Amino acid sequence: MSLSRIAVTGVRNLQPVTLHPSPRINILHGDNGSGKTSLLEAIHILGMARSFRSVRLNPIITHEQPSCTVFGQVELGENQSTALGISRERSGDVRIRINGESVRSAAELADTLPLQLINPDSFRLLEGAPKLRRQFLDWGVFHVEPRFLQAWQRLQQALKQRNSWLRHGTLDAAAQAAWSRELSAASDEIDGYRRAYIQALKPVFERTLSSLLTLDGFQLSYYRGWDKERSLAEVLATSIERDRAMGHTQAGPQRADLRLRIGSHNAAEILSRGQQKLVVCALRIAQGHLVSESKRGQCIYLVDDLPSELDDQHRLALCRLLEQLNCQVFITCVDSKVLLEGWREDTPVSMFHVEHGAIAPDHGPSGVKA
């Protein structure tokens, strides 16, 4: 799977642009602030209906423009393709179209265009809040387990009802019991999907990480969000008074976490920024392998400022892993020379120069295809 055409209008400082990228490696180079990351952001908006740089719309939309629009032609293989389009208005309105038909859910975009982001903020996956690691985990489960989305929606509805009752006491005993049963059932289903996913992810992640660096005693484990010795129904029954005092349900899959440790220590407390970046890269590349194995298409990787915090050896090792995925990759850098070498001769590599928001194909000094 790959994007054969990308058209962007109204995203930050980018001039209106239409690109025909390589189905494999695409290198975008230029000075800081030239617009390289803005193109990755536009692709992210196309696949996720949101930016990875800002939760607010105004900074994303070009000054004095009413909206931003991104279009993509996705090649699915076997002469099949899908057209995606998304428009976001300053007012907050979102219009999503797949093959010309309007859709309401961004989940359909994500299902059609699986994206993996590796950027300078990637270390937050290790040292940030559990919510970030749950999002990482659930992205993977969503793409390999078709039943996950429905179970997750059931969970959200049950949590909403129980939390409302905890705060306002508006449900009778029968309704309380019904929503608690629904919450427990959805939670058990989600926990099962997550456990199966982690079981599949761990060996792939460990192999991937070992090709990047050696970390003795590194462990990846999963915490489901409640006592492993008790059922969630039992935990909920015994924690009602505490939950009412807090105003929300404290146990359940909404509190799950991935734990990455070296010995008895949190890995983020020991690893350097460069090492953290490599661990996150290994996690995301392992996810890409699982998506491919699930026969639901390959990921597209967005790698912002790949050379930062990596020496030549680790940069080359990371490029080799991305190349072995046989998927489409968009990489940004300031100096293209550091990324020109290391690719196999038969790997299609396209270069694009970005300057003052304008993007143009660049054959480069070494004759790399564009």
Give an account of the 3D structure.
The protein is of the alpha/beta class and about 375 residues long. The protein has 2 domains: about 1-115 and about 300-370, Rossmann fold; about 125-295, RecF/RecN/SMC, N-terminal domain (Glutathione S-transferase Yfyf (Class Pi), Chain A, domain 2), CATH 1.20.1050.90. It has 11 helices and 15 strands. The chain has helices at about 35-50, 105-110, 125, 130-145, 150-170, 175-210, 230-240, 240-245, 265-270, 275-295, 310-325, and strands spanning about 1-10, 15-20, 25-30, 65-75, 80-90, 95-100, 100-105, 115-120, 220-225, 255-260, 265, 300-305, 330-335, 350-355, 360. The strands form 3 sheets. The protein has a 6-stranded antiparallel β-sheet, covered by helices on one side. A hairpin with a 7-residue loop joins β1 (about 1-10) and β2. α4 (about 130-145) packs across α6 (about 175-210). The radius of gyration is 22 Å and the shape is globular. The model is unreliable at about 365-370 (pLDDT under 50).
* Main β-sheet, spatial strand arrangement: 2-1-4-5-6-7
The N- and C-terminal alpha carbons lie at a distance of: 19 Å
Number of domains: 2
Question: What level of helicity do the residues show?
Answer: 40-55%
Helix count? 11
Task: Write out the CATH superfamily name of the largest domain.
Answer: P-loop containing nucleotide triphosphate hydrolases
Which fold does the CATH topology of the largest domain refer to?
Answer: Rossmann fold
Shape assignment: globular
Count of distinct strands: 15
